[in-house]
Design a protein that fits this description.
Chain A is built from 10 helices and 7 strands. With 242 residues, chain A is α+β, with helices and mostly antiparallel strands. Chain B is mostly helical. Chain B has a single domain, classed as 3 helical TM bundles of succinate and fumarate reductases, CATH 1.20.1300. Chain B starts with a helix and ends with a helix. The chains are: A alpha+beta (242), B mainly alpha (108). At the A-B interface, helix 10 of A face helix 1 and helix 3 of B. One iron/sulfur cluster binds next to helix 5 and helix 7 of chain A.
Chain lengths: 242, 108
């Protein structure tokens, strides 16, 4: 990696919900990610800077931050792609309380996964034979298209409906619920359909697709939510949501 | 919004779609034919068809708009829960009354 002489001016959020952006001068390297920048600041300029990461390879979903106004997974976001005029502005994820600096409090995000019943409800034990799911079955294809979520919260931070309506479950929880309604092994369908049909459920989505545009895994929560809308409407008409 | 409001809003929209198209065609017809107010009222007064047509229009619009305004109020004002529900019902009733007045004026 060759080091250029260039420097970046990086504004980083310091504080909790009350706080301010502070500027740092950071050497601009080739192939540098936004997470590298944050780490460099913490190592060489200010050890009190708080942020969160684990895998650094786009698997764990813990490093998401707001970069120049847009939520991104910072370990896989190249500075060269997002810096504007040699400047970067890095803040914590939106739509969540701030713990400190760049670390957002993900509690509400994960609580909504629980509220959406977005967890597998087993119907078998380890003594039963393994259920055969044909990979080409329509339900499995629908689940596969939505399954690779890393819980990064980028979609949640990008969603205006989450911002406007504190009850709204949000794209990630609903996307996970969609993978489960397409899982024939799951035994929690009735409870789940009721949960996502209630106030704050899938019907609040405006389909404006910020989640789909920004999901680093290229998932399409908007499409998953549209599927849930169809499914719950049909279940309601059949009287299956009692 | 829950599944019931969602369905009520979608169904009222589906009902309104053909009504809106017909309504616009009727306006074009009336204007191009040079009908004046008296001639229009002659055709609509005592007509069961126009009564039902515009009555359905008013009911659907009241349902559709009340749910829509409720969603906007949920997202853009601090209102939640019962305030939201009562506000939406009141707004729907207001549209219903205004619409019913207009329909009765041309049909009765
Ligand atoms: S499509 Fe729905 S879930 Fe996605 S950002 Fe828009 S409102 Fe939020
Ligand atoms: S759906 Fe995409 S953006 Fe949302 S949490 Fe999962 S991986 Fe992140
Ligand atoms: S650090 Fe794990 S996804 Fe970025």
């Amino acid at each position: 990696m060759s080091q250029s002489q260039q420097h970046l001016t990086v504004s980083v959020w310091r504080g909790k919900s009350e706080g301010a952006f502070q500027d740092y001068q950071v050497p601009h390297l080739e192939n540098q990610t936004v997470l590298d920048i944050v780490t460099w600041i913490q190592r060489y300029l200010d050890p009190t800077l708080s942020y969160r990461f684990a895998c650094r390879v786009g698997m764990c979903g813990s490093c998401a931050m707001t970069v120049n106004g847009t939520p991104r997974w910072t370990c896989r976001t190249h500075v060269s792609k997002v810096a504007r005029d040699g400047r970067l502005k890095i803040g914590p994820l939106s739509n969540l309380p701030v713990i400190k600096d760049l670390a957002a409090d993900m509690t509400a995000f994960f609580e909504k996964w629980q509220r959406a019943e977005a967890r597998f409800t087993p119907t078998k034990t380890r003594l039963d034979p393994i259920e055969q799911i044909p990979p080409s079955s329509p339900a499995r294809l629908a689940a596969s298209a939505a399954i690779e979520c890393i819980n990064c919260g980028v979609c949640y931070a990008a969603c205006d409906t989450v911002r406007w309506n504190a009850d709204y479950l949000g794209p990630a929880a609903l996307n996970r619920a969609w993978t489960l309604v397409n899982d024939v092994r799951d035994g929690g369908q009735d409870v789940r359909l009721r949960a996502i049909s209630a106030n704050g459920g899938c019907h609040n989505c405006h389909s404006h697709q910020s989640c789909q545009v920004l999901c680093p895994q290229n998932l399409n929560p908007t499409a998953s939510i549209a599927g849930l809308k169809r499914l719950t409407a049909a279940a309601f008409i059949r009287g299956g949501l009692k | 919004m829950d599944v019931r409001l969602y369905l009520a809003q979608r169904i009222s929209a589906a009902v309104m779609l053909p009504l809106v198209i017909l309504h616009i065609l009727i306006i074009l017809y009336a204007v191009s034919d040079g009908l004046n107010a008296v001639e229009i009222l002659e055709r609509t007064r005592g007509s069961l068809f126009w009564g039902v047509f515009y009555g359905l229009f008013v009911v659907s619009a009241a349902i559709h708009a009340a749910i829509g305004v409720r969603a906007i109020a949920r997202e853009w004002t601090p209102a939640t829960g019962r305030t939201l529900d009562y506000g939406a019902v009141l707004f729907g009733l207001l549209l219903l009354v205004l619409g019913a007045r207009a329909v009765s004026a041309v049909v009765l």
